[in-house]
Write a structure and sequence with these properties.
With 342 residues, the protein is α/β, with parallel strands linked by helices. The chain has a single domain (16-340), classed as Rossmann fold (3-Layer(aba) Sandwich), CATH 3.40.50.720. 43% of the residues lie in helices and 15% in strands. It has helices at 6-14, 27-38, 54-63, 66-69, 82-89, 104-109, 111-131, 165-184, 210-218, 239-251, 272-285, 313-319, 327-340, and strands at 18-22, 42-47, 72-76, 94-97, 136-142, 187-193, 196-197, 225-227, 233-234, 237-238, 260-264, 270-271, 296-298. The strands form four sheets. Strands 3-2-1-4-5-6-11 form a seven-stranded parallel β-sheet, sandwiched between helices. Helix 2 runs parallel beside helix 3 and helix 2 (27-38) packs across helix 10 (239-251). The longest helix is centred in the middle third of the chain and has 21 residues, at 111-131. The chain is globular, with a radius of gyration of 19 Å. The two termini are 21 Å apart.
Length: 342
């Protein structure tokens, strides 16, 4: 269960709402589902299971009570299908939109598919939210919208040119949300995630998140690769912080907080070399057997930015967002989960 601040957990439990979660079987979506069910909320979840898994859903449903489990309705469907979007939004008070193609390299290989899923799919969700009179839509944006702007830390009002179709799709999502807020009065809030990590993140394949991939590889005797010299830095954000931000955005009563996008991160930087050492040490400390003591370096990937560091002051001020998990604490918890998984 993701640990919410006590006041936020109380606010959530005070009223049983109906939530629609897209991408519910994915990494972030399943954590949102778990938190909502464990706080006695009703959830309709949509997923086409192309990247999300039934295993993720089973892990959630195995840790909630029978009464909480009964509050969940799973809909197998695709956000590119407007009918599926209407179905999941029907009766919902809040939409948490997390269905997307979320890989920069994959978007470069398949730009049209990325557009169809990320942009047109989101347009379908916004239309369904309007048609079904959903009160609020909280959607996943990305730090990739900052593109080639090298200003650090990243502030929401300053962005550069997108470096990939994925980044472009997230920028267009923010524009679509702005249109719906202005034209139809839809309450929208965008969350620009910075390198989210945690349990249930897929460690396999060429598009896996770096932390999940490295834990998996180190513990299985496989080589670990770093793109570049390792000085590249990221603002890594544990999944508990992301769940907190979603609930805060969904429940805020501040008018000035609506129609905004927010950086959701820790507000600090960790280099890839530092990250490797931290993961290596955690795997060793928790009884694993790291496959190597130093990583292999290779060329930078096209579309990747060199440094990422978020200014989270806007989210602190308007959403009362305070990260609950540091990189160190988050890595310890994540390594423990991966080592416990056969």
């Amino acid at each position: 269960m993701s640990a919410l601040p006590e006041s936020l957990a109380s606010a959530l439990k005070e009223c049983a709402r109906t939530w629609a979660v897209t991408g519910v079987a994915g990494f972030i979506g399943s954590h949102l589902l778990e938190t909502l069910l464990q706080h006695d909320q009703h959830v309709a979840g949509l997923d086409d299971l192309s990247t999300g898994t039934q295993v993720n859903l089973k892990q959630v449903l195995d840790v909630v009570s029978p009464a909480q489990k009964a509050r969940f309705q799973f809909i197998k469907g695709d956000i590119r299908n407007s009918g599926d979007c209407q179905t999941v939004c029907r009766g919902a008070e809040v939409v948490l939109h997390h269905a997307a193609t979320a890989s920069v390299p994959l978007s470069i290989e398949r730009p049209r598919e990325t557009f169809e899923i990320n942009v047109m799919g989101f347009a379908n969700i916004l239309a369904a939210a309007r048609d079904q009179k959903v009160k609020r839509c909280v959607y996943a944006s990305s730090s990739s919208v900052y593109g080639d702007d090298d200003h650090l830390p990243k502030v929401e009002e300053r962005t550069g040119r997108p470096l990939s179709p994925y980044a472009q799709s997230k920028r267009e999502n923010e524009e679509w949300a702005e249109f719906y807020a202005r034209l139809y009065g839809t309450e929208v809030i965008g969350l620009r995630y910075f390198n989210v990590f945690g349990a249930r993140q897929n460690p396999k394949g060429p598009y896996a998140g770096v932390i999940a991939q490295w834990i998996h590889s180190l513990n299985r005797g496989e080589p670990v690769h770093i793109n570049g010299d390792g000085s590249t830095s990221r603002d890594f954000c544990h999944i508990e912080n992301v769940v907190q931000a979603n609930i805060l955005a969904a429940l805020t009563t501040k008018d000035q907080a609506l129609g905004q996008v927010y950086n959701i991160a820790l507000g600090s930087r960790t280099t890839l070399n530092e990250l490797f050492q931290m993961i290596h040490d955690d795997v060793t400390r928790q009884g694993g057997k790291p496959s190597q003591n130093t990583p292999h370096h290779r060329d930078f990937r096209p579309g990747d930015i060199r440094h990422s560091h978020a200014d989270i002051s806007k989210a602190r001020k308007l959403l009362s967002y305070v990260p609950s998990r540091s990189v160190k604490d988050g890595l310890e918890a994540t390594v423990a989960c991966f080592l416990a998984t056969p």
